[in-house]
Specification:
Layout (H helix, E strand, L loop, with lengths): L1 E7 L2 E7 L8 H8 L8 E10 L1 H9 L7 E9 L5 H5 L5 E3 L2 H6 L1 E3 L8 H8 L5 H7 L4 E10 L5 E3 L22
Antiparallel strand pairs: 1-2, 3-4, 3-7, 5-8, 6-7
Helix pairs in contact: 2-6
């Protein structure tokens, strides 16, 4: 988690922004979406944007939309007879095409405070946050929600396997075992 304080036009705030998708826990996802009940054959997915805070704040000042990398995650579904969809758990990383996400219905949750727009609004007026954001090298995660047809979810991604030795590119270790 990346922690920092902001004293802007909306007041003083403390942020703890996740630095990876795994830091957005299932409890937070459930609390933010408890009031949302997808219809039959629809699924609620989280869109996790991952980029530097400085890019998000700079883009907002220029009235531009930042081109953020996204990771779709499964939240929940309405009734469906799809065994694949019913096997998914909250927080699973899923594969959904960009076009399916773009036509999905945006769902605003008043309980989700880590949307890009909310962070931009809270940071507005703080003269030091932009300088501080440029010093933050690690990208942070933002979260929004979309409602999509279950047919738009094409796959689920497992965690990558670290034990595989790639025959094409691999890290070389010196005699002390350090990279």
């Amino acid at each position: 988690m990346k922690s920092f304080k902001v004293n802007g036009t909306l007041g003083e705030f403390e942020f703890n922004l996740p630095e990876s998708v795994n830091e957005i826990n299932v409890e937070y996802l459930n609390q933010c979406t408890d009031f949302i009940h997808p219809n039959k054959d629809y699924a609620l997915v989280g869109i996790v944007y991952k980029d530097s805070l400085s890019l998000v704040l700079t883009s907002a000042k220029k009235n531009q939309t930042a081109q953020l990398a996204i990771v779709p995650i499964f939240i929940k579904t309405g009734d469906t007879d799809s065994e694949f969809i019913n096997s998914l758990k909250t927080g699973d990383k899923v594969v959904i095409s960009a076009s399916d996400l773009s036509i999905g219905n945006h769902i605003n949750s008043p309980y989700n405070k880590i949307t890009p727009q909310n962070i931009i609004n809270v940071c507005e007026g703080d003269k030091n946050i932009t300088k501080e954001a440029f010093l933050m090298i690690t990208p942070v995660c933002f979260l929004e929600f979309k409602l999509v047809p279950v047919s738009a979810i094409h796959a689920m991604l497992d965690e990558t396997k670290n034990s595989y030795i790639n025959p094409f590119v691999r890290k070389v270790y010196n005699s002390t075992g350090e990279a």
